[in-house]
Amino acid sequence: MSEAQETLYCIGCGAAIQTTDPKAAGYTPASALKKSLADDTQDLYCQRCFRLRHYNEIVPVGLTDDDFRHLLATIRDADALVVYVVDIFDLNGSIIPGLQRFVGDNPILLVGNKEDVLPRQLRRTKLKEWMKQQVFAHGIKPVDVALTSAKRGNAIDDLLALIEKYRRGRDVYVVGVTNVGKSTLINRIIANNTGLKDLITTSRFPGTTLDKIEIPLDDGHKMVDTPGIIHQEQMAHVLTGDDLKLASPQKEIRPKNYQLGNGQTLFLGGVARLDIIDTVKPAGVVYVDNNLTLHRTKTENAENFYEKHVGELITPPTGDAVADFPPLVRHEFKTTAVSDVVFEGLGWVTVPADTRVAGWAPQGVDVLTRPAMINRQ
């Protein structure tokens, strides 16, 4: 594409279309571009988005966290409402460090996506308050909290009403880390208002939106889908293919109760493990995808058990991924109240107060504790 030609953008991820560098964002083979331009009815997608949409393949591109943050920093100078989308199932992995600094004085509407995967008995008013407390701890002060399921379309009209209430005739910037369902949510909003479906590329793989995508609003302003900040600490970066589905539940999770006492280990598939070192109350409630295999054993036998059964009795990982799977790294904690031991991007185990535990996760994946989201103890 020559300099004299008008710059074209991928309708899926927002990247500028180019035909010279296959490893860079927006790459499209010249032949495919020519074919798209010749057919007025054909939407223009870069090669990466085309493969995502038709083959569910991910093609890495040369964008860095600094690139993403530079794009987000433009929000500071805008007069807009910031819609901050988080994955309720992976709230800690959804935190954008320094978000308040990025957005300046613009108001933030906190939107908890994927609320449909949480147990129905969890009171939503209590969940909203818990979410506020979690983001407050990171210096983020939302004007309000909304819950939705972009996939199922739950409470979309309520969310739109809140957006109208707080945007007050201004632009809307939608922000979030990768894989929280941000683009899916915008697609749902577009579909509700125009009938167009799946306009923006979406995927369970991290880093789908590569540049700002602007959607015009009826009053002349716009809704802007920004690229997601990539958190390398998420489980999604060490799982591939079908294994990745188990790190992002698609249905309401069913909590599983275990009597976890001293010297016992619980494996969460082959991707995480929890050791109970010392507790006065044997207990544990597991919140992970319903299809993830769980197995309890003695801590003294845990390492041998893992080496013998990973990829077979305890999965994921599966197949060829077993040989290249990162080693599990140990993180030790002592709880002072009923707490969640969180394996970032996979789920959590709620344990009693005054319990010393060790959480293991693949090298590079975060394990942390937080006040229990659902306190059943």
Give the topology:
Elements (H helix, E strand, L loop, with lengths): L29 H9 L8 H9 L9 H9 L6 E8 L11 H5 L4 E6 L10 H13 L7 E4 L8 H12 L3 E5 L6 H13 L18 E4 L5 E4 L15 H5 L10 E3 L5 E5 L3 E7 L5 E4 L6 E5 L3 H8 L11 H4 L3 E7 L4 E5 L3 E5 L4 E7 L4 E5 L6
CATH homologous superfamily placement of the largest domain: P-loop containing nucleotide triphosphate hydrolases
Number of helices: 10
Q: What characteristic shape results from the CA principal axes?
A: globular
- Terminus-to-terminus distance: 63 Å
How are the strands ordered across the major sheet?
3-2-1-4-6-5
**Largest sheet geometry:** 6 strands, mixed
Helix % is 10-25%
Number of extended strands: 16
CATH topology of the largest domain: Rossmann fold
Low-confidence stretches: 55-63, 195-210
Tell me which CATH architecture of the largest domain applies here.
3-Layer(aba) Sandwich
Subunit organisation of the chains: single chain
CATH classification, class level of the largest domain: Alpha Beta
Task: Spell the H/E element sequence.
Answer: HHHEHEHEHEHEEHEEEEEHHEEEEE
How many domains make up the coordinates?
2
Structure classification:
alpha+beta
Mean pLDDT: 84
Written account of the structure:
It is built from ten helices and 16 strands. Strands 3-2-1-4-6-5 form a six-stranded mixed sheet, with helices on both faces. A five-stranded antiparallel sheet has the order 7-10-14-13-16, with no helix packed on it. The protein is α+β, with helices and mostly antiparallel strands and 377 residues long. This is Ribosome biogenesis GTPase YqeH [Lactobacillus sp.]. It comes from Lactiplantibacillus mudanjiangensis.
